[in-house]
Amino acid sequence: MSDSQTWLPHVVVAAIVQRDGKFLLVEEETADGLRLNQPAGHWERGETLIEAVRREALEETAHRIEPTALLGCYTTHHARRDITYLRLAYLCEVVGFEPDYKLDTGIVRAVWLTPEELAAHPVPHRSPLVMRSVQDALAGQRFPLDLVTHA
Question: Domain 16-145 adopts which CATH fold?
Fold first, then answer.
């Protein structure tokens, strides 16, 4: 990267949803092929991070979710594309389901998996943060939602 270029990380949100011992994930088509990920996506102009995670979960899984805590802030670098991601992961609970909702382009399906099923799944994870988020959730990591404020 030259000095004249501005480095801008991509800010994304992720919904970490656990119910009955399983986590909500999506199989999605990416530039690298089929991948497993939590419902996640870019934070868009004009919305709060909470609004972003609600929107992404609905668009990718047809589930309406409500964040209950901030799981953590994570970074990862996609070397091949030279993109750094800042990922804010939220622990969420399901509050509704829209069975007729048309999922985002590229989303193959939403799937509920145990941590063991996720670890052994034949579809690769989108990033190392997929499993890390599950491990942190299972370890009881959580921060109050107001840790991040919008002014």
Answer: Nucleoside Triphosphate Pyrophosphohydrolase (3.90.79)
